[in-house]
Design a protein that fits this description.
alpha+beta, Uridine Diphospho-n-acetylenolpyruvylglucosamine Reductase, domain 2, Uridine Diphospho-n-acetylenolpyruvylglucosamine Reductase, domain 3, 3 domains, 16 helices
C-alpha cells in the first residue's frame, strides 16, 4: 500500500507528535490527535490525497483556523487532518464586477483590509475575523454582526472549486448575478461543515464601502427593555447594519478583560450601527435613539472613528473575556424571530435563576441570534452535569419560540445529539442520503452533524 510519502512532497505533511498537537483541537475544547497533518498547496495536492484516502478507507478532516465552537474540525486519532495555511492567496480582486477570488486559507480580516484600501468591503464579519479563514467561514456559513443588514456567508458565495471524497475536482456556481441551470450545489456546499467536499477556491461577491457609519450605544435597566427596543426598531422599518446585545455578566467580563469602561450598573447594552448616505442615516439614528429612550434606554453616540473602533474591539473580546472567567463554559448560539427576542432573553434569565447557574448572553440581537453562555466549571463534575442539562431546556425554549438551535456555529460534534429536536426523521434521512451520495465510504469529516443513534437526545 502507498503511504503519504509516495503521493506528497517533503514539507507538505507530518506525523510528528509536536506537529499533531497543534491541530487536534478547535475552540470547542475537544482535543484528539490525528495520525497525520497535511499542508496542501493546491487543489491537485488535495485531489491526490483524497484518492489515496478513498482507496485505503482513511478518514480526512479539513481545518481552517480552528476557531469553530462545535468541534467541526476536531479529528479522530486515525485520521489525516488537512490544514490550509499554505493556500492563503487572494487570487483576484475584480472591483468592476464586484467580486474576489480567494483560496480557503485567507484570513477574513486580511480580505477586509485589502478591500477596504480600495473602497470596498466583504460584509460577513465573524467576531474571530482576525483569525478565522474564509474556507472555514464557507464551511460553517458564518455570519457576524453585519448579518442583520447584509446577510451571511451563503449570500456572498458565487462559485466554488472543491475536491470530492474520491478525489474528483468539482466547480460549482457562476460568475454572473443570475443562473438557474440545474441544482444549486454551491449553496448546498456552503454550511455543510466539510462533510461533503473540501473547498479549494472561492469566488465572493463584495460591495462598495458605505459613505458613512453612525455608532450608537444604548444602556438599559433590563434585558427585556433592550429586547423590546430591538423588535421596535425593526418593526419601524429601520435596518441597522448591526444591533449587538451584551448583558450584565458579559459587560462585567469585558471590563475585567479590557480597559473599556462599559457601565456595570445596567442589565443590558445595545451597540447599534447604521450605515449609508450621511443625511439618511442621521435621520435613522435620531429615530433609533428615540425608540431606545422610549424603553428607558440611555443613549450615547460614538463621536469619532477611534471611539467606534474601541467599542468594536471590546465587542470582539467578549468570548475570550468570558472564557477567562469560566474556561469550561458551555456556549450555544440559538436564534429566534426578532419579535421573540424579548421572550428569549427573559426565558434564558429565568432558566439560569431557577438552576442557580449564571447565564451570560450576548450577540446579534438584530437578527435574533443570541450567544448563550452557561458559566460552569468542568472540574466540578456535579455542577457541570447539571449545567449540561440546561442545554436541552434552552433549545426547547428556542424551538417553542419558532427558532433554531444554531444560528451560525453549526452542529459539528457538540450539538449533534440534539439535532432531532429540530429536524424530523424525513429531513434527517434526506440529509444523510445526500452525505452518502457525495461520500459513500464516509471518510470525509465523519461523525459530524449526524450522531450515532445511541447519542441522540429527544
Amino acid at each position: 500500500m502507498k503511504s503519504l510519502k509516495d503521493i506528497l512532497v517533503d514539507g507538505t505533511y507530518s506525523m510528528e507528535k509536536e506537529d499533531l498537537l497543534c491541530y487536534g483541537y478547535d475552540a470547542s475544547g475537544i482535543d484528539v490527535l490525528p495520525s497525520a497533518v497535511v499542508w496542501p498547496n493546491s487543489a491537485a495536492d488535495i485531489s491526490k490525497l483524497m484518492q489515496f484516502a478513498w482507496q485505503n478507507d482513511i478518514k480526512v478532516i479539513p481545518r481552517g483556523a480552528g476557531t469553530g465552537l462545535t468541534g467541526g474540525s476536531v479529528p479522530s486519532n486515525d485520521s489525516i487532518l488537512v490544514s490550509f495555511e499554505k493556500m492563503n492567496k487572494i487570487v483576484e480582486v475584480d472591483t468592476r464586477n464586484l467580486n474576489v477570488v480567494v483560496e480557503p486559507g485567507v484570513i477574513n480580516g486580511e480580505l477586509q483590509r485589502t478591500l477596504g484600501a480600495q473602497g470596498y468591503f466583504y460584509p460577513p464579519d465573524p467576531a474571530s475575523l482576525n483569525t478565522c479563514t474564509i474556507g472555514g467561514n464557507v464551511a460553517e456559513n458564518a455570519g457576524g454582526p453585519r448579518a442583520l443588514k447584509y446577510g451571511v456567508t451563503r449570500d456572498y458565495v458565487m462559485q466554488l472549486e472543491a475536491v470530492l471524497p474520491d478525489g474528483r475536482i468539482i466547480h460549482t456556481g457562476v460568475q454572473t448575478k443570475k443562473s438557474v441551470v440545474g441544482y444549486d450545489l454551491t449553496r448546498l456546499l456552503v454550511g455543510s461543515e466539510g462533510t461533503l467536499a473540501i473547498i479549494t477556491k472561492i469566488r465572493l461577491k463584495v460591495l462598495p464601502r458605505p459613505e458613512n457609519v453612525i455608532t450608537i450605544l444604548a444602556a438599559f435597566g433590563s434585558v427585556e427593555q433592550a429586547g423590546k427596543s430591538v423588535s421596535r426598531i425593526i418593526a419601524d422599518g429601520i435596518i441597522p447594519r448591526t444591533m449587538e446585545l451584551m448583558d450584565r455578566i458579559t459587560l462585567a467580563a469585558v471590563n475585567k478583560y479590557k480597559t473599556v469602561g462599559f457601565p456595570e450598573d445596567i442589565d443590558a447594552l445595545l451597540l447599534i450601527e447604521i450605515d449609508g448616505n450621511s443625511r439618511a442615516i442621521a435621520a435613522d439614528a435620531d429615530k433609533v435613539g428615540n425608540i431606545c429612550s422610549g424603553f428607558q434606554g440611555k443613549v450615547k453616540i460614538a463621536e469619532d472613528t477611534a471611539s467606534r473602533d474601541l467599542l468594536w474591539e471590546a465587542r470582539r473580546a467578549v468570548s475570550p473575556a468570558l472564557y477567562k472567567i469560566s474556561p469550561t463554559k458551555i456556549n450555544e448560539d440559538v436564534v429566534v424571530p426578532v419579535t421573540k427576542v424579548p421572550e428569549l432573553l427573559m426565558g434564558l434569565q429565568a432558566i439560569g435563576e431557577a438552576a442557580g447557574v449564571p447565564i451570560a448572553c450576548f450577540g446579534h440581537a438584530g437578527d435574533g441570534n443570541i450567544h448563550v453562555n452557561i458559566m460552569t466549571d468542568k472540574n466540578d463534575k456535579k455542577k457541570y452535569d447539571e449545567a449540561e442539562k440546561l442545554v436541552r431546556k434552552i433549545f426547547r425554549l428556542t424551538l417553542d419560540l419558532g427558532g433554531s438551535i444554531s444560528g451560525e456555529h453549526g452542529i459539528g460534534l457538540t450539538k449533534s445529539k440534539y439535532i432531532n429536536m429540530e429536524l424530523d426523521s424525513v429531513n434527517i434521512d434526506i440529509m444523510q442520503g445526500i452525505k452518502k451520495l457525495f461520500d459513500a465510504k464516509n471518510i470525509l469529516n465523519p461523525g459530524k452533524i449526524f450522531p450515532p443513534a445511541s447519542a441522540v437526545i429527544s
